[in-house]
Amino acid sequence: MRIRTLAPLALSLVLLAAACGDDSTTTTAAPATTAPPTTTTAAPATTTTMVAPPTTTEALSAFPLTVETDSGPVTIEAMPTQIVSLSPTATETLFAVGAGAQVVAVDEYSYYPAEAPVTDLSGFSPNVEAILSYAPDLLVIAGSPDDLQAAVEAVGIPVLLLGSALTLDDVYAQIEKLGAASGHADEAAVVVGDMRTRIAAVTDNLAAAGTAATYYHELDPTYYSVTSATFIGRVYELLGLENIADAADPDGYGFPQLSEEFIIGANPDFIFLADAQCCMESPDTVGARPGWGTMGAVTGGRVIEVDADIASRWGPRTAHFIESVAAAISGASNT
To answer: How far apart are CA 71 and CA 169, in angstroms?
Structure first.
């Protein structure tokens, strides 16, 4: 078993998976000598609950207001009209709650939805001068490298720091905070309510079916994975799945690098590929790996490609991800 404890490297793999989601087409390697796996793919996310913006009077009456963030309370004096988002999750959320028209610039990885005003701004190596060139009256970030938050706040611009979610409640709270901060609190409540309803329907059905299985989530072809300590791991746990990587991460790091021997020996019931778009991995390429062709997930057609962007983010499309994976599990189980 190989386990590396370099946090920046493993986290960068997750972010790179999100960044390259739409850039590649899938190629297929020669099939394994055993029965080739059938392709079972989680459906791509095509819709997100969008709601109409409120009237100007309704929006303006909510301000000034104070929002609790990861760095403490932030007061927003007036409804923002020039929002800059350096968080792909926040960008998706702002558009979902009806604040898209207020967003003037987003970072290079915020390419969902399609109408997001993508720029070359970076959330990892931020350029304060470049950010300020968009004359923002609100900046939303997922992290604060190089004291970004302090530098922007120093010129009087409020900054919302909303980091990675760990639970669904964290997701709901962030949506509500972004809704309130942008003047769309009621619309955010609609989005959250829709998510709760859809996710409850999935989990209720799974509970009734009594589904229980093991899985391996692949971040890249070098076998970096996630454990149940991560947000996406908790999502799989919600679906009644047991993570084989948990046993390879005694320190609770969250992103262990597994070995082929460990994965083959664990023989997971399902394999989820978050490296299909970035690295052209597929059920066929997995089945062609030495020793993988006889694994139950391969011979049973339970190697499932998942959307790398949604799997590495925690916004409104989480509900669709849960529905898609549950449908793929159900479909593969019935074949």
So the answer is: 18
